[in-house]
Amino acid sequence: MMATGNRAVVDDLALRHLDAAYNLGRWLLGNEQDAADAVHDAYLRAARACDTYAGGNARAWWLAIVRNCCLARLALRNKEKANVAIDDNPVAAERLMPHDESGGVEDQVDGAIRRRQMAMHLDRLPAMFREVLILREIEELSYREIADVLEAPIGTVMSRLARGRALLQKALTDDGTVEAPHGL
Amino acid sequence: MDCKTAAELVPLYFDGELDRATSREVEAHLDTCADCQAALIELDALRRALRHDVPRFSAPDTLRRRVAESATVAMPPSSDRRGSSRRRTWLALAASWVLAFTAGGFTLGMWNQVASSGHAESQLDRDLFASHWRALAAASPIDVVSTDQHTVKPWFAGKVATAPVVRDFAAQGYALMGGRVDYVGNERVPVLVYRHGKHLIDVFVLPGPVTHEGHEAVQMQGYSLENANLGGQKAIIVSDMDRDELLHFRDLLNSVT
Ligand SMILES: [Zn+2]
To answer: What's the CA-to-centroid distance between B7 and ligand 1, angstroms?
Structure first.
């Protein structure tokens, strides 16, 4: 679908999926400036690499470049800090999860608080789980597409998605943001 | 299919990653297994929470300009950026399917009954019933909880294409509870939530003008769909109220100008 050397197609692709790219960057990097810079880096890299695009899902190809630019920024930022990189093993990554210090939360959680808590819990997830949740639940990518973005096997996508969902579910249930729906 | 296999496949089923035949097998197991049903419902609740409560950051204009300036193509409208409609449709189906057993006593047989009804607008009806039941099953059927019509209306601004007319009918026995945004097909639509006695009432305000051919009232397992005209917009009421109460409420909505 993408003719090699077709710069216009890459431009169209990047602009069409700019929100998805920025959203991913924002959730991986945690702030607007870094996310915007990473996406711009990604665009420049994609424009240069349009000759090397080897076929397959174009959106996944573009988001993979965005992700790599984000990871490069993360690595730079974390050089001095001893943070766990996104691709380290999940068990180690989970141990780094901060625990919720808010303790008992009121029964009635209104929309604004619920949104803040959701964002907080998602933000606290290790990045490797956060990114699959964003790609699957928010950007609605298929397993195949996520695998292309992560440049990882589908089995890895499935296990990270399962683990990410379980961790987020647990965090939400623990502070009552989401109630078990079958309790009705 | 045994439960262990099914439990592993439920997330794949939910994500639309199974072929038709395997999906059928999972469905057959779900029919009989409360644990797997609960797992599916949990997945749906988590997705809803993520979609509703987590901000989706849009590229700032400065970034869009930066990229567009070096790009060789015109800036596309930023509206057509969501996933494929195929998956969206599937999700709606999955959600209605989940709901068939969440809201007290519904059975999968009912889902099949709706699915095979052959009604011209049965997909729409299915979405609406599903949305109503899902809301009932969720921790809260309401995103903005307010009995104040002046709070509810602005809340919709920016979330849906057209903010609906919002009126409270507490004096007439139909109190405004709040509102939420829900999907009907591929469309995000405002839903007004009212209460009449112990009955919860959803009013889906559909985009576009009122059409006269509007489909007949549909009833299912004690729940009804009824058409209304809310200040010039097509609205569909879903509730388990008595017929007379429902029609009275419809007339109230219709009287809004
Ligand atoms: Zn089971």
So the answer is: 6
- CB-CB: which of A11, A43, A179 is closest to B73? A11
DSSP 8-class letter at B157: B
> Does A101 score more than 50 pLDDT?
no
pLDDT given at position A95: 46
Q: Is residue A69 scored above 90 in pLDDT?
A: yes
Q: In the prediction, which pLDDT does B92 show?
A: 44
Ligand 1 center to B26 CA (angstroms): 9
What is the nearest CA distance from A171 to chain B, expressed in angstroms? 11
CA distance B215 to B139: 31
* Contact in structure between A143 and A57 (CB atoms under 8 Å): no
Instruction: Find, among A26, A169, A161, the residue nearest to A90 by Cα.
Output: A161
What is the nearest CA distance from B137 to chain A, expressed in angstroms?
6
B7 shares contact with chain A (CB less than 8 Å)? no
Taking residues B138-153, report their average pLDDT.
68
Q: Supply angle C-alpha B217, B229, B242, rounded to 5.
A: 40
Burial A119-146 (b: 16+ CB within 10 A, else e): eebbebbbbbbbbbbbbbbbbbbbbebb
pLDDT reported for residue B106: 33
Query: For chain B, what is the mean pLDDT?
Result: 74
Mutation for B interface: A137, A163, A167, A169, most B CBs within 10 A: A137
Backbone torsions φ then ψ of B239, nearest 5 degrees: -165, 170
* 8 Å CB contact between B165 and B233: yes
Q: Which two tokens stand for residue B248?
A: 């009275």
Contacts with B10 from chain A: Cβ below 8 Å:
none
Helix (DSSP H) and strand (DSSP E) numbers for chain B: 9, 7
Are the Cβ atoms of A11 and B102 closer than 8 angstroms?
Answer: no
Q: Looking at CA atoms only, how far is residue A112 from chain B in angstroms?
A: 9
Q: Order the strands of the B144-145 sheet from edge to edge.
A: B144-145, B175-184, B187-196, B199-209, B233-239, B223-230, B218-220
What per-residue confidence (pLDDT) applies to B141? 60
Please give the distance of CA B231 from its chain centroid, rounded to a whole number. Answer: 21
Taking 50 as the threshold, does the pLDDT of residue A138 lie above it? yes
Rounded CA separation B26/B32 (Å): 10
Counting Cα atoms < 13 Å in the Cβ hemisphere of B183 gives 17
Give pLDDT tens digits for A17-66.
999 999 999 999 999 999 999 999 999 999 888 776 666 678 899 999 99
Whole-angstrom Cα distance, residue A168 to residue B94?
Answer: 21
Contact A18 B17 (CB under 8 A): no
